[in-house]
Amino acid sequence: MTAGGDSGAGLPLEGLLVDFGGVLTTNVFQSFRAFCVAEGLAPNAFVDLLRSSEETRAQLRLLETNRIGADEFGAHVGPLLGVADTAGLMDRVFAGIGPEPAMVDAVRTVRSAGVATGLISNSVGSSIYDQAVLDELFDAVVISGEVGLHKPQPEIYLLGAERIAVAPARCAFVDDLRENCAGAEAVGMTAVLHRGADGTRAELERLLGVALGEPAR
Q1: What is the number of helices (H) and of strands (E) in the chain?
Q2: pLDDT tens, residue by residue, 67-116
Q3: Quick check: is 215 in a domain?
Q4: Of 29, 33, 69, 131, which is least packed with CB atoms within 10 Å of its CB?
């Protein structure tokens, strides 16, 4: 699915900006559910807390922009979830994610074809990033905790485009959250709402004019 109803005019695009968790990794919501089950909670307890608690969402934004640390955020959400052991809580929340080979392969192939590539990621700590993978896949990296901005703020998308030296209107952006795709569209990017590697790879072939072939599995 391409958000924004791109007509095909002006293709192929010249830059690719992607999210990390849930795009280059396996589904983060499955990891959230696995965490909850392991802690003896209802499977959707963590997501339900994020959706229902404005204070928790505000704390998450502070975490993403490096204004508080992961342990401080864990100390906030642990009691609300009924989790007594808050040390390393966020590491446990994300313990169930792993690489998504088909999407890693797509970005690698796109970059090898000469398309500028960049990462725009809302950070929840450094443990989910593999620096060697970032160096291999991207011309530039924008991580919220390092730049003090977060998706869907317009400035973070503009910074990503600036760092790969491609105008926003010439960039495709991939994310697994609708609000982050909407933020990219607001600055003129063509957003792809990621709902699985096969669909996203097909959309990137169309938008970027790069043949991706059969994905690595």
Answers
A1: 11, 6
A2: 999 999 999 999 999 999 999 999 999 999 999 999 999 999 999 999 99
A3: no
A4: 131
Same domain, 126 and 183: yes
Structure letter (DSSP) for residue 215: P
Q: Domains in the chain: how many in total?
A: 2
- Does this model's pTM top 0.85? My answer is yes
Spatial CB neighbours of 8, under 8 Å, sequence gap ≥ 6: 206
Position 57 in a domain? yes
Q: What is the spatial distance between Cα 116 and Cα 121, in angstroms, rounded to a whole number?
A: 17
Helix (H) / strand (E) element for 195: namely none
Q: Under DSSP, is residue 158 helix (H, G, I), strand (E, B) or coil? A: helix
Of 145, 104, 100, 99, whose CA–CA distance to 121 is shortest?
A: 145
Clarify whether residues 135 and 39 are in a common domain. no
CA atoms of 176 and 25, how far apart (whole Å): 11
**Boundary (domain end) residue, out of 70, 93, 116:** 93
Q: Which domain holds residue 189?
A: 2-27+98-208
Could you give the 3-state DSSP secondary structure of residue 3? strand
Domain shared by 104 and 185, yes or no: yes
CB-neighbour burial class of residue 131 (10 A; exposed 0-12, middle 13-18, buried 19+): exposed
Q: Is 211 helix (H, G, I), strand (E, B) or coil?
A: coil
